[in-house]
Amino acid sequence: MSTQLSTLDSEKTSLVAWGWRLLMALSAIGLFGFYGDILDVYEVSIIILTAVGMAWLGQNWPGYRWHTVAVAVLSLIAVTLYGSDLGHAETSFWLNYLLASQSAFMWMSALFVMATVTYFGGLIFHSEFTEKVASFLTWAATTMGMIGLMVRWRESYLLGADIGHIPVSNLYEVFILFAVVTALLYLFYERRYQTRSLGGFVLLVISAAVAFQLWYTFDRQAHEIEPLVPALQSYWMKIHVPANFIGYGAFAMAAMIGVAYLLVERQTGKASVSRWVQKMPSLALMDDLMYKTIALGFAFFTLATILGALWAAEAWGGYWSWDPKETWALIVWLNYAAWLHMRMTKGWHGGPMAWWAIVGLFVTLFAFLGVNMFLSGLHSYGTL
Question: pTM value?
Answer without folding.
Answer: 0.94
